[in-house]
Amino acid sequence: MVWNFSPDLSNADSTSSDNKKDNSKPIGKPMSAKMDKTITPFQIVQSNDDKTKGMPATGHAVSQILSPLKDKNVDSVQHLKRNHNLIIPELSDNFIVLDFTYDLPLSTYLSQVLNIDAKTPNHFNFNRLLIDQDQEGHVILYAISKDRHQVVKMKTSVKGKDVNQSLKNLSSEMQKYTEIITNKDTIDKATHIFAPDKPKDLKCYRMVFNTINVEKMNSVLFNDSTIVRSSQSGLTTYNNNTGVANYNDKSEKYHYRNLSEDEKSSTNMEETIGGTFEFINGHGGFLDEDYRLFSTDNMSGELTYQRFLNGYPTFNTQKLNEIQVTWGDKGVFDYKRSLLRTDVILNSGDKKSLQSAESVRSALANNNSIDFERVSNIAVGYNMDDRPKNDDIEVQRNSEFTPQWYVEYDGKWYAFKDGGLE
């Protein structure tokens, strides 16, 4: 049951894009995704004295908030470090929070999303951006590190009144949010965990899928004709001199590995994020659907792009809602995805209200099997309950999408159920 393959890499370096098959076709519309819609926060929060409100970061909301920040100047940069919990004394009582689910290089976000040229600390990563104003009415940005011990303060040329207008345009869509403290690093107003107070009337959906042709996927990734090496029990292996791919027609999951790339993947996120985005976008891999960067693994170099629905992240135990990609020295090293794409989205007509964020917090804090200090996010998401197609019935594969509480615990996301984590 062991299969060995030794590729002939003698001509691998000479293979160019000119030698690719003329009939190589993208799996979706190329270059349809935008960087500021894919490298984006998952929620927008306004903290105003003791009043906190927010909303999921829909494409419309992100455009509103980021529009005044784009193409502007950064006049000064200051890097602050704290050994204990982060306190920003000059932070006002009214500021905006952009929360991300992943570590992101500040230089990448400024240059590729906001089109701002600024000299920032080398390899500084953040997952929360605060938008504040000074007494002169200029916008101050605070990029906060994931461990909540470092912050980069940037004074910009952006006018506060423009940000105020953008926030006013979104005010009617915002709902009450609550602030949660889980450990000593989240006790300041700049570092609280924010979650919707009492999520109500969230719509449920059903999606019907069709399947991307595996040959089309092969034509995107292989430079020349492929050989089918084996096919049994629904698993087919394809390869040529520079790559090997496996496809499972039951799960409809595809896994490609580039043999011409080094075994060691790149962990330089400044290169990896831009490279993987351009690679997937170049062959229409986002399928005109709302895929967003959701996690970055700084050890393995793997990035996960995850499907969103109405601004909320979706979760699936079989990872049918994810695109996982690892960058090598000059190109993609490893690429895993489902070949399902949305055919029809149906509003089921059902609406669901969730228990309050406070009850979730209380249940987690009182659960003896959970170390509450390791909770770093509490958020609403959609559970993708997959319904595989039955070969005996002429029914397309489909899924139910139901809203549910999710908790980031020790760096991983879990569904909250019955006072614990699934």
Describe, in plain words, how this protein is organized in 3D.
This protein is mostly beta strands and 422 residues long. Helix content is 15%, strand content 42%. It contains 7 helices and 24 strands. The protein has helices at 35-38, 59-66, 106-113, 160-170, 214-221, 269-282, 357-365; strands spanning 43-48, 51-56, 74-81, 94-105, 125-133, 138-144, 150-159, 175-180, 193-196, 202-211, 227-232, 235-239, 243-248, 253-258, 291-296, 302-309, 312-315, 322-327, 332-338, 340-352, 375-387, 398-409, 412-417, 420-421. The chain has a 15-stranded mixed β-sheet that branches. Strands 3-7-6-5-4-1-2-8-9 form a 9-stranded antiparallel β-sheet.
Percentage of residues in helical conformation: 10-25%
Largest sheet: 15 strands, mixed
Rg of Cα set? 23 Å
Provide the low-confidence segments as ranges.
11-22
Topology, number of strands = 24
The shape, in one word, is globular
Topology (SSEs and partners):
Layout: H1 35-38, E1 43-48, E2 51-56, H2 59-66, E3 74-81, E4 94-105, H3 106-113, E5 125-133, E6 138-144, E7 150-159, H4 160-170, E8 175-180, E9 193-196, E10 202-211, H5 214-221, E11 227-232, E12 235-239, E13 243-248, E14 253-258, H6 269-282, E15 291-296, E16 302-309, E17 312-315, E18 322-327, E19 332-338, E20 340-352, H7 357-365, E21 375-387, E22 398-409, E23 412-417, E24 420-421
Parallel strand pairs: 17-21
Antiparallel strand pairs: 1-2, 1-4, 2-8, 3-7, 4-5, 5-6, 6-7, 8-9, 10-20, 10-22, 11-12, 12-13, 13-14, 14-19, 15-16, 16-17, 16-18, 18-19, 21-22, 22-23, 23-24
